[in-house]
Specification:
The structure is a single chain. The chain is of the alpha+beta class. It has a six-stranded mixed β-sheet with strand order 8-1-2-11-10-9. Strands 3-6-7-5-4 form a five-stranded mixed β-sheet. Strand 10 and strand 11 form a beta hairpin. The N terminus and C terminus are likely disordered.
């Protein structure tokens, strides 16, 4: 692919992905989630472990009478569990499967800010999968702001797996 073709592809990606992202830290790295997927940010609540769930499911919380599964993003990315501190939060996201909407809590180290990321600041994610790293299908793109790199997550793919769909459908309690 020529340099001109690559710029054209990056430009199209940037135009498609540009917008507002809620950014957060996981370990030393920064990630962003499309702000339209975020329902709310809550401080740590008591998380009840659920037996026989995938290791990256931390458990469930009771949020205003609704049982919501909580995914430990550190474990989901094989980085080890999130070490909860006074900065740790649960980001409640709304995702769409083919069959239903899924509400899931995502445990992260710290919320940073909402950023408006412009088209020229977005590029394609590198492919880490061959090195045993993060599956690039979980990333929509990479934001470049000054010296910061922000991995833009495809939160639907991060959150919705066959295991989480089953857990979420079992956890849903009519209001």
């Amino acid at each position: 692919m020529s340099q001109t073709d690559r710029r054209s592809v990056d430009s199209a990606l940037g135009i498609r992905l540009a917008g507002k992202y809620m950014t957060f830290k996981l370990g030393p790295d920064e990630y962003g989630v499309d702000i339209l997927k975020v329902r709310e940010i809550i401080g740590l609540l008591e998380i009840t472990r659920v037996p026989r769930t995938p290791p990256y499911i931390r458990g469930v919380i009771n949020l205003r009478g609704k049982v919501i599964p909580v995914l430990d993003l550190g474990k989901r990315f094989d980085m080890g569990p999130v070490q909860t501190t006074g900065h740790s939060v649960i980001i409640v996201v709304q995702c769409q499967t083919e069959a239903q909407e899924v509400t899931m809590g995502v445990l992260v180290d710290e919320v940073l800010e909402v950023l408006n990321i412009e088209p020229h600041q977005i590029g394609h994610p590198p492919d880490f999968s061959s090195a045993g790293g993060l599956d690039s299908k979980l990333l929509r793109g990479v934001g470049r702001l000054d010296k910061r790199i922000i991995f833009l997550l495809d939160v639907d793919r991060v959150v919705i797996t066959s295991e989480t769909s089953e857990i979420t459908s079992r956890a849903t309690v009519p209001a």
